[in-house]
């Protein structure tokens, strides 16, 4: 055993040493490149857009940071949009090639990217798209191109949107591990997966209407780009009319069926190049390093753009988690900065802690007393995400934003059944009537349930009040569109939950109008450490990532995400203002 221990220690020491050498190599390369702009953009170039990494609204690292971009798992939507905008006016860039994406972005982010590419086309430059495989989101983005091409043995998925919700009632009964659920009385769909084995008709109806609204937004855009009526697009989806390349071409979803070398010949002709080998490609990552140094908006006056993305938890927060610490610090900085004339809060969150949501809401209220506050909603701004947005002077959402879900609930794990099965008995001793609040090992007492229910009702009432005051509607009106119901951006505008449909840029333009300024610069908050710096700061994180990858490999990606979802439920503390179920749209 001692020999094995020494052997493992030696192996671990070697791996750590190699890791340090690897890290120092990257530090050296980064420092070499930090002194000057190493990106070379040749004349007659094509910007190649391959989006293979997850897209976040904002990565938060400064372009002045020499380690920016290293060890980053995600791409910033703001950086991608800036690259496309800069490319539009860059005479060296003659066109864009959207090439073999596997788009890891939400629908609203995809729609925003699509709008930016549509704007790029106004320059008269070409956009071509090629795919070996088109998922529905990939095709939605690619359909903006002047011409769309598909591999002769490629695949296209065009069938309409769907969503799957998992139900855990039987699992709880079989394992003896259950979630005690306490919710607002009328909040029917909240935490339904823990209470039922089947989807309720009310929940089926609301998800169906949400999906239909999102799908309508998608096919309206595709219809305009491809000159195919929405009616015909729905027939194509119903008949799987894009399932083979030849059918996709017959139904005008694509322009040609080509191998990639043939596609490159098309690009060469567009560039007036004799050979495809003469094409000057520049990758999006490389061009982004160039474009982020360009200031598109300048002026002494500033508009602060504060990005709130991820689930809402009590605490400091970070790149993927909204905490009151980091968000309120940004709001206070922007409020107190005399150069900042307006604030845009970009929200991309399914919600979370009701307490944290209210703390952030209060800071938005204080900022609003000093200068205009406009909210821009991303993929999702639901429940707690809507809570922190409700008080803004004006709210913008994308047509495909998922929002609403105004409701609260509490989930508390209980393992009484499991404990009984494996022979555990818990006994409690206390000094007062209510000193033993709750035990995982005992059935939930009526007194404790009533206490939590009272808190749930009070929090729901507070949430409704925030919505009522923020949207200038009665409590009854707020209640009628609440009850945990989720809405698309289109429906949210119709109901008065948002003011306008538009992008982050539209929200910024409105903030400038409200502040009565014409020329202005942008200040983005908060600033995060780069992925490289986070890696150095927490080497153990690399080990955790390795373990995560091993687990994924062993049990499969889908099972891993189910386990993560269950763990997320188990970790929820306090009253929750979040999406009532996990909605994965395909």
TrEMBL record:
It comes from the Bacteria. The chain crosses the membrane at residues 7-32. It is found in: Membrane. One of its GO terms (molecular function) is serine-type endopeptidase activity. One of its GO terms (biological process) is signal peptide processing. InterPro entries: ClpP (IPR001907), ClpP/crotonase-like_dom_sf (IPR029045), Pept_S49_pIV (IPR004634), Pept_S49_SppA (IPR004635), Peptidase_S49 (IPR002142), S49_SppA_67K_type_N (IPR047217), S49_SppA_C (IPR047272). The active site is at 188 (proton donor/acceptor), 383 (nucleophile). Residues 120-265, 367-517 form the Peptidase S49 domain. Keywords: Hydrolase, Membrane, Protease, Serine protease, Transmembrane, Transmembrane helix. GO terms for cellular component: membrane. NCBIfam families: SppA_67K (TIGR00705), SppA_dom (TIGR00706). Belongs to the peptidase S49 family. This is Signal peptide peptidase SppA. It comes from Maribacter algicola. The lineage of its organism: Bacteria, Pseudomonadati, Bacteroidota, Flavobacteriia, Flavobacteriales.
């Amino acid at each position: 055993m001692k020999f094995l221990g020494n052997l493992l220690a030696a192996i671990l020491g070697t791996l750590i040493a190699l890791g340090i050498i690897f890290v120092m190599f990257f530090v050296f390369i980064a420092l070499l490149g930090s002194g000057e702009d190493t990106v070379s953009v040749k004349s007659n170039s094509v910007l190649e857009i391959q989006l293979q990494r997850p897209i976040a609204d904002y990565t938060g690292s400064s372009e002045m940071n020499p380690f920016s971009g290293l060890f980053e798992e995600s791409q910033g939507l703001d950086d991608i949009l800036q690259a496309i905008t800069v490319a539009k006016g860059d005479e060296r860039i003659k066109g864009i090639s959207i090439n073999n994406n596997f788009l890891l972005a939400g629908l609203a982010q995809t729609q925003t990217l699509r709008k930016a590419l549509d704007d790029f086309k106004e320059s008269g430059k070409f956009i071509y798209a090629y795919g070996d495989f088109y998922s529905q989101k990939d095709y939605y983005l690619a359909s903006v191109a002047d011409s769309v091409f598909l591999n002769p043995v490629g695949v296209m998925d065009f069938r309409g949107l769907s969503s799957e919700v998992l139900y855990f009632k039987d699992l709880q009964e079989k394992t003896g591990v259950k979630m005690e659920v306490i919710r607002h009385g009328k909040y029917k769909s909240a935490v339904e997966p823990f209470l039922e084995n089947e989807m309720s008709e009310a929940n089926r109806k609301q998800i169906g209407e949400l999906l239909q609204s999102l799908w309508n937004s998608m096919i309206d855009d595709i219809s305009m780009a491809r000159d195919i009526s929405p009616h015909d697009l729905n027939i194509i989806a119903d008949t799987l009319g894009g399932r083979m390349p030849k059918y996709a071409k017959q139904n005008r979803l694509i322009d040609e069926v080509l191998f990639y070398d043939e596609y490159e010949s098309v690009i060469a002709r567009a560039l007036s190049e004799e050979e495809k080998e003469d094409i000057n490609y520049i990758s999006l990552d490389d061009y982004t390093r160039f474009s982020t140094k360009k200031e598109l908006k300048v002026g002494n006056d500033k508009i602060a753009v504060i990005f709130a993305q991820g689930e809402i938890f009590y605490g400091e927060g970070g790149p993927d988690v909204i905490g009151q610490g980091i968000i309120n610090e940004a709001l206070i900085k922007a409020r107190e900065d005399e150069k900042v004339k307006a604030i845009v809060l970009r929200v991309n969150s399914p919600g979370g802690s009701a307490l944290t949501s209210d703390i952030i809401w209060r800071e938005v209220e204080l900022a609003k007393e000093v200068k205009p506050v406009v909210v821009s909603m991303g993929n999702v701004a639901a429940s707690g995400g809507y809570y922190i947005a409700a008080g803004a002077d004006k709210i913008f959402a994308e047509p495909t934003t998922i929002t609403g879900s105004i409701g609260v609930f509490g989930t508390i794990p209980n393992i009484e059944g499991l404990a009984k099965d494996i022979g555990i008995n818990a006994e409690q001793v206390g000094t007062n009537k209510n000193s033993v609040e709750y035990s995982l090992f005992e059935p939930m007492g009526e007194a404790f349930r009533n206490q939590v229910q009272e808190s749930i009702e009070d929090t729901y009432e507070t949430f409704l009040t925030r919505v009522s005051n923020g949207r200038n509607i009665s409590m009854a009106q707020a209640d009628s569109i609440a009850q945990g119901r989720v809405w698309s951006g289109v429906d949210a505008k119709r109901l008065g939950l948002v003011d306008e449909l538009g992008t982050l840029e539209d929200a910024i333009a409105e903030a400038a109008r409200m502040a009565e300024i014409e020329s202005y610069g942008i200040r983005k908050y908060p600033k995060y450490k780069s992925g490289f710096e986070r890696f150095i700061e927490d080497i153990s994180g690399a080990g955790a990532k390795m373990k995560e990858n091993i687990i994924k490999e062993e049990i499969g990606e889908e099972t891993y995400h189910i386990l993560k979802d269950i763990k997320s439920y188990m970790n929820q503390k306090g009253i929750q203002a979040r999406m009532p179920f996990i909605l994965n749209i395909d």
